[in-house]
Amino acid sequence: MGCFWGAEKLFWETPGVTDTQVGYAGGRTSNPSYRAVCSGSTGHAEVVRVRFDPQVTSLEDLVVLALENHDPTQGNRQGADIGTQYRSVFFLPTSDDAATVERILDAYGKQLAQQGYGPITTQVVLMDQAGTGFWSAEDYHQRYLEKNPGGYCPHHGTGVCYVR
């Protein structure tokens, strides 16, 4: 979803989300720093770990929220944020969760194509196949936009709403 600051805010404001934590996943090194991730040398993506109450919201709802709030066709970038750390990716704990996300991506990809967008480049990765796992980002990144209300937040979707 690009920069994790705006993505985290999007999720923490969502009813049913009980906890968010920004960090790094999918890279080749343990416990990377923000500077190392931004250099592109570690292979990590900026990510948000989201915990939620399934009585209030669902994985499907959260995936749709994510897809509608960034451009999943842009590859290793979101707007002006360019680099592999900004790639569109879902890291998931189970193959059932991955299948749910793949189903939604397939349907949304068709909807985007009807509006003239290219193919979705979003990756779906099981956490146990993601290399080093999830590493929490430095404290100053956690709930960054709560601490810095006017901070940088580049998230913009395609304007194409997911039709269930």
TrEMBL record:
> What residue range is the signal peptide?
none
Where, by residue number, is the active site? Answer: 3
The GO biological-process annotations, alphabetized, read as: cellular response to oxidative stress
| Sorted UniProt keywords | Oxidoreductase
One Pfam family assigned to this protein is PMSR
UniProt GO MF annotations:
L-methionine:thioredoxin-disulfide S-oxidoreductase activity; peptide-methionine (S)-S-oxide reductase activity
The reaction(s) catalysed by this protein are: L-methionyl-[protein] + [thioredoxin]-disulfide + H2O = L-methionyl-(S)-S-oxide-[protein] + [thioredoxin]-dithiol; [thioredoxin]-disulfide + L-methionine + H2O = L-methionine (S)-S-oxide + [thioredoxin]-dithiol
Query: Out of the domains of life, which is the source?
Result: Bacteria
Q: Where is the Peptide methionine sulphoxide reductase MsrA domain?
A: 1-153
Similarity remark:
Belongs to the MsrA Met sulfoxide reductase family.
Entry function = Has an important function as a repair enzyme for proteins that have been inactivated by oxidation. Catalyzes the reversible oxidation-reduction of methionine sulfoxide in proteins to methionine.
This chain's protein is named Peptide methionine sulfoxide reductase MsrA
Q: Which organism is it from?
A: Corynebacterium argentoratense DSM 44202
